[in-house]
Every structure is written in C-alpha cells, then in structure tokens.
Amino acid sequence: MRLVLIIHLTGVILRVFGVILLVPLAVALAHGEGWDAEGFAVAGAVAAGLGEIMRRAGAPGEHEMRRVESLAVVGATWLVVAAVGAIPYVWVGIGPVDALFESMSGFTTTGATTFADFTQYGRGIFFWRAFTQWLGGMGVIALFVAVLPRLAIAGRQLFFAETPGPTEEKLTPQVRRTAAVLWRLYLGLSLAEVAALTLVGMPLYDAVCNTMATLAAGGFSPHPGSIAGYGNPTAEWIIAGFMFLAGASFALQYRVLRGRPSALLRDDEFRAYVAVLVAFGGLAAWFLWRAGLGAPAAIRHGLFNVISIVTTTGFASMDFQNWGEQAKAVLLAAMFVGGCAGSAGGGPKVVRLLLVARFTLAELRRVLHPRALLPVKLNGRVVPEDVIRDVLAFVACYFAVFAICVLVVVSLGADLVTGITASIATLGNIGPGFNLVGPMSHYGQLHPVSRLVLTAAMWLGRLEVVTVLAIMRPEVWRMTHWRAGGSPGASRGAASP
Asked: In terms of Cα–Cα distance, which of 250, 111, 259 is closest to 187?
C-alpha cells in the first residue's frame, strides 16, 4: 500500500472540498449570519490549505491503483472531510466531540443529532447539516470521480470502493460517465422534490433542506419536530415517495428512465424491497389502528415511518417513541434491513439479507439431500461462492461491531433499549432510535465516550464495515511503504485484501 499515493489523492479531494464550502457560506451571508459565515470561510481555508499540503506531500501513482489503496483513500477521505466539516459547528460554540459527531452524522447520512435546542443556531448551520447529507448520499468520492479528470487514473477503483452494496453497477463504458449519470439523476430527483414540496405549502428553505436530507436518506430536518413539525399530510406522502426512491437502486431507476420499466419486475432485490416495506408498513399501521389511531392516519404514519427506517432516512411523521410496544417492535426489526445496493440508503442492504436467506434455505435442503446441487441464484443467475462468502463475512462483521457498540454504550450508563437502538441506528446510518435517542430527542445525553464510539460506528457503517477492517489487517501494514512504486512482492501482498 503506497502511502504517498493515498495522501496525494485524499489531498486532491480535500482541496476541492474547500471550494464546496462556499455554498453554505453564501447561504449564511444571505440570511445575515456573518459570524457563521466566518466559520465556513475558516473551514474552507483549512480544507484548501491542508488539501494542497497533502497533494504536494504525496505524488500521483504511475500504475493502476490497487484495491486496498482505493479502500484506504475512501476511508481517509470520509475521516478528513468529516473533521474539516466539524469546524463550522465548533465555530458556533458546539464542543469538539459533538461537532465531530454532527459532521460525521451528516456526511454518512445518518441523521443522528446532538442538537438539544434548535433556536441556538442559524439557517446557515441547518443548511450545512442537510447539504453534508446530500453530498454524502451519492458519495463524496463518486462526486469527485465525476468532475475531476485527475482521478481518472483510479476512477473505477474509487467509484466501486465508494458505492455501497455487494454488486457493481456499470451503466456506461466509462466510470466517470457512470458517476456523472447517477449524479444527474440525483440532482433531477432533488429538484423535483423541492418543486413538489413548495407546491404543497412548505417554505422554500425548508423544502430545500428536507429534500437534500430525503434523497440522501439522511434525515436532518431544519424543524426540531422533524417532518411531524410541519403538520402537512400531503408533504408527508411526497417525502415518503422520494424516500422510497432514495432507498432503491439509482442504477435501476436510470434503466427505467431509459425505457426499460420491466427491469423493476425482473429485479429480485427490488421486489424484496417492496415486499418488506408493504409487510412492515402494513403491520405497523395495523398496530397503530388497534391502538386507537384512525385508519387513514394509521396507514400514513405506519408507512411513512417504516419507509423512513428501512431506507435509513430517519425522518419521523410522529413521535414513534410514544407508540405501543408492538408497533415499536416493527420499527426495531426494520432497522436491521437497510436500502438496496446502489442506493443512498445504509444498513446491511436488502440484497445481502436476500442472499443470506436463500443460502440458508439451500443449506437446510442440503441436510435432507446431501448430494443435491443447490446453487443460490439472484435475478436468474447463479451467485458465485466467493460473493456468498463475502456476504456472510459482512454480516458476521456487522453484527460483531453492533454488539461491541451496545456493550460500550450500555456500560457507560445508557439503558439497554437505548444502547441497542443507538448502536444499530448509527451503524446502519438510520439516525433516531428509542428512549434517550428517540426521534424527538438527541444523542447529546449519552456519555462523551459513547458519542465517540458511535461516531466511529457511523464511519464504519457508511464504509460497509469490511472496508475498514480489511485495511486494518496486519499484512496490509507490513506491505505499506511511502514510495509510489513498490516491488512486485509488495504489490501482490497489498492487493490480496
């Protein structure tokens, strides 16, 4: 693994990120928030300056980028960008731990917050929260692969190291064009949602912020009561529809727009995704109706909050902390699902759970028929054994990290329900949980060490856990060196993970 190349590419991305900070700076100035604007200016200067130092300290590689180096660039970029993105929060008086938590929550599209009093912060800050989610939704790396010719040397590796899910989607012959196509779709959906929300009476500023958080499957709303605070059922249905799209594969949506609507019906993951939403949403609505809520409201709130949790958006149309235990159990189960591969959603992903289920059924049948050939299929094709192995490894690592987070959070004073839901909500990039971290509450009540651990969980979850664990393997670091070249032995050793 060539550190000089990793530092160089991370610096290139960070330097351009400094320019992006001009957007929230302009928003803060437009609302007369000069002090907040200074914070964005400082963050932009730090990003541009540090990025330039890193760019000059490193050097572009002469050879094709190795997979482990791609993973390292992606992991380092998310850490550095989140650290710089925390500067505006620190500037307005938020402590370093909470500022890093808030920034990481934004870029990883988690939506967990430490804000207790929304009246303390200006519109520039709330725009920044939503904007970081919008950038993170499609992926910071995918953005720069689309717009920076400099990254063409490693475009494919970086793009697929960033894109979540066990499958690779390549819509055009060039990866840069693929990233650009997906970003155009993302931008088009964002503009459509802003228009729809403003038409039903939501103020433009709120419509923009909520749209960025919706399409990113993020959940940061400028209203302290989330979507419930607007009291607009029509807006809730609109947001539910766009949350559904955010949790579905953008590549699949692109194919539909290109005149291939049958792709939806032929895709096993999409069918499973819809089935999960209908089943969980219907069950939640049933429990809400049994608890005394009118049928139309029960259906709306049941579907909205299930879609929000499954897609890992984290919006709330009502305080589901006050739901009955049965309805809350549905949401808890939904937290372990996630969106589709290639979507903005986090979590384990529907396709992985589908493959695990089919593999388990095949193994149960193999007990009765030991000599039978029982391949696992997806979309009519046999799934290679190495893919199944990767999926099982991911699930094992995912739940191991989840268990460690629960142990830490509960050991530091939180109750068990808070510990479980805070851990899965951050690792799965969902946002709200139950009890102390309910949808109308905040994570600032947890121990500072717990908040740091959950910040790391958000980072791990956004990078799909295995990415980070792979680059932490001892053999990777034994083969790590500064120079850009590298011996053949180093190449083989570094490429193996």
From this structure: 250
- 99 Cβ contact partners less than 8 Å away, ≥ 6 residues apart: 86, 87, 89, 90
Q: Is the backbone of residue 221 left (phi > 0), alpha (psi -120 to 50) or beta?
A: beta
Residue 162, CA atoms < 13 Å, CB-side half-sphere: 28
Cα dihedral 169, 475, 75, 393 sign: positive
What amino acid is encoded at 408 in this protein?
A: V
| 176 has a pLDDT exceeding 90 | no
Going by pLDDT thresholds of 50, 70 and 90, the confidence category of residue 171 is low
- For residue 382, the cross-strand partners are 377
The torsion angle over the Cα atoms of residues 14, 17, 18 and 23, rounded to 10 degrees, is: -170
Q: What tens digit of pLDDT does each residue of 55-104 get?
A: 888 666 555 667 777 778 888 888 999 999 999 999 999 999 999 999 99
Among 298-302, 339-343, 435-439, whose mean pLDDT is lowest? 339-343
**Plot region of 416 (φ>0 → left; ψ -120 to 50 → alpha; else → beta):** alpha
Pick the closest to residue 313 from 6, 108, 58, 75 (CA basis).
Answer: 108
Tokens of 166: 């066990």
The letter for the amino acid at 198 is T
- Residue 297: both structure tokens together: 């409201």
Convert the pLDDT of each residue in 368-418 to its tens digit: 888 878 888 988 889 888 889 888 988 999 999 999 999 999 999 999 999
Question: Residue 190: which residues within 8 A CB-CB, separation 6 or more?
Answer: 134, 211, 212, 215
Q: In sequence order, what are the residues at sequence separation of 6 or more whose Cβ sits closer than 8 angstroms to the Cβ of residue 87?
A: 39, 42, 43, 46, 99
pTM of this structure: 0.90
